[in-house]
What does this fold into?
Amino acid sequence: MRAFLAALCVAAAAAAADSRCAGKIPSSWSWVGPVVSRNSSSIQHSQFSVGAEGMDRELTVFDNWKSYLSGTGAKFARVQAGWERCEPEGAGSYSWGWLDNIVVGMVARGVEPWIELSFGNSNYPNGGNAGSSSPFPQAGPALAGWLAWTTAVVCRYSPVDNIGAACAGHSRAPGLSTVLGANIFQVWDEPVKAGNTIQAYAALANATATAVSLAAPGAQVWVGGFSSPDAGLADALLTGMTHMGGVGLVTGVSYHSFTSAPEAASSAVSALRATASKYGDIEIVQGGGGAPSSPTDAASQSGYNWTECSQAKWVSRRMVQDHQDDITTSVFTMVDMCTPDGGVVADGLIGATCPSKQVTKPKPAYYAFNALASLFDAHWHYRSLSITVTPASGGFGSYTPFTGAYVHDTSSEFWVALWLGGQTPTNAGETPTVDSTVTIRADGLFAPDLCWVDPVAGSRHRISTWSFGNGLYTITGVPLSDYVTVVVACPEAA
It folds into this structure.
């Protein structure tokens, strides 16, 4: 127990390495302890995923950072399976060792890999290449090779209970549990670029979905991986698949979200959800959204002076906004990636040096991710409660206050997430704090005491400035900042 508590304190200290990043805490709110940390194995289910991209192109190395994976609390990780790396000679002879190591290693750590089937294979005529802008394999030996590899991947990594007759004669990854494995298979990533059309992608997605479903009838098939929540592209894709007969195999449409203010994507996501619902019971998945910890050219959102502070704030808002919208969401990415031209994709929750690809340290975003994943497991559900936020003086300036209430599925306890949004997160020394009064209409719900969880500071405080009457909780002196903080019930959270 002492070792566990020590680890929590280390995590909290690391998260709050620069105290100027966090908002202020009222002096009357007593410190309770560090944020509660849970690893992936201790969380039964949640909607949070972390990106594990780039290993198909050797931009990062699983063995260098695998010991940190469970510490995120993520339940899923997006893995790009790499057709060309799996089939380096293009002759139907597969090299599985690298991918086996990843899939088996993730499952052992309580994380389910969702496997992205990508990209091309230059060993086949018209088969494309291993890069993310590869042309699709559309016909002849290239398409046949792609579908054969797809079948082999699905058979190798699906739980045994999921596999179908098409898997006869296919091998299973050594050491992989018979009841665990990959249940989700996504077709390609950001498909409409470099000359690839939505019509050509619909044909590829249709053929691939059919192959996945024949190999594992119980598998989920996700399509899209669009670079933004584009309802028009999704409509064209699903219409095309309807005409080809495969839309009924689709269980999810994935998109990426790299808006500098995470909340900015919500209206487009609603439109995407409405479009997908026309074609069946299809969920919407935020499959890769992130922010860098430095403004390198290779990173996402490179036009802003990003730091580890603003990255951690962005991650907190991305996670909770998507949870509020009931979306499975994946943060891009687990570790900084090294590009072939010497660039650094600095979106990682963990730092790395290039070109060695060796891990340096977890960033504050890593601890913020874990704090929120530890809180918002599958037992907590969004509830539309009446919440009012009133600034003590003046206004919120260019910010908009955002709130979200959550109720536990087996009790009457509730939590409330609060933040200032609508703008790009600030850096250390710039954090806005607006003292506010928060009122929560919570008829029938209960909290014996209230605590304040700050995932960026890594701390918990007992709130002393609250009262309850006539079904209304009132909290004064609430320090709203441009990242997510959470009012939770004590003593459970304390």
User: Anything to note?
Assistant: Residues 40-375 form a domain with the TIM Barrel fold (CATH 3.20.20.80). The radius of gyration is 23 Å. The first strand starts at residue 30 and ends at 34.
